[in-house]
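User: Hey, quick favor. My workstation is busy. Could you predict this chain's structure for me?
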Amino acid sequence: MNNPNDSDHTVRQRIAVSGVQGLGLALFTGSAAMVGVALPSMAREFDVDLTLVQWVSLSFFVGLASFHLAAGRLSDIFGLRTIYLSGIIIFAAASIGAALSSELSWLIVWRVIQALGASASQATGTALLIRVYPANQRGRAMGIFGTVGAAGMALGPVVAGSVLEVSRWPTLFLIMAGVAALSFAVGLAAIPKLAASQEKGRFDWLGALLMSMWIAPGILAVNIGMRDGLLNHITIFSIVATLIVLPAFILSQKFAATPLVHPSIFRSFDFTTSLLISSSGFATSIGVQLLIPFLLGSALNYPISQIGLLMSLGPLIAMLVSTPAGAWVDRAGPHIPRSIGLGITVAGYILLLPINETWTFIHTSAGLIVLSIGHSIWSAANRTLLMSSVSQQHLGIAGGLLSAARTFGFSIGNAIFGGIFSLVVLNIDSTKIAIEGSAESQLIGYKIAMLVAAVMLIVMAALSTWRAVRT
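Assistant: No problem, here it is.
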């Protein structure tokens, strides 16, 4: 059950928790951004196509989505502090393993283990903030969440671009290990011990296993299906596995004595639609993070340092916008800011659609900045609405589901938009590797992918606006 004194934490404790959680979040978002910039270098070194090397990124997000609910439940049993710090240690060890990998397959394995550690810390991070901030400051807390996440996203491409100018990609993983060690030391000293948010019970091992067993085949089905077609034997196997295991997971949660997530939580319309908007919004966001570096480097011949700077502009703007957006949410409520933010994000995708060989740094940066302003607004409002739509005893699992929706969106987005890009390029040029296609075909593949992203968000904006009008 909740500790009745959780709302009485001092300002100093709130600042300490915000700082520790921010450092961890910046580490995970920064590492994802660094890997995104390094993917072209990895593709060349391992001599593989985009659809294969993107699994270095994709496997991390698949692992996150698979483990978040289990991590949330484990934090109910062993405490937020224990699970958060354990996750940091696992991430640090896996980063060292990734740096030492000499084969793509081993690099992907270590990325999955990184995800195990990151999921433990991410799933508990939002709950830590909610537990130490009062209800009337949750918008600000979620704004801070967005600000520090953006800081990691901003620093990641800059660090990656600078490091890759003088060194190879393993250096990036050694940097991650060092930052993780620092995060653990600070967290050990600063995070207070909090009472469990729910009554302890047995851990649902069957539910945790089934959760991990349906997400990976589902992502694989989308990724391989986009590249090789629905009749490919791997695609068919993955689809069948997902259709079998997903219903089994749902049934297991219905009948388990202490499920990972109680089905009654989905009765809230705001909660369910917020999860859908989160997944869709982050799926489209990863499309930009995945395709822009490839397009600028491979088709438009931008230097890698300039690519890193461009990819950091959006997060830098988010650092400035997220906290004021959270304050706006506290004053106006979450529905209207979310709808406006989604509309601005759509405008950003439309601005980026006409990209071509004549575009300058200013052209590209303008679209990325608008995109980031909209994303910062809707995501702060959406997080606040989701966490406010559940009872106090379900805050922990709500945080886990929020993290799972975000990372599931990243995973699906990687598969969908990477698949669209490769499918278009390979069909136009009849090449075996998309990044070896002509600049013209890569531009066409990019524009089709971005058009799909814009349409997805238009649908989400319409849903959010409909709910805002009825509220």
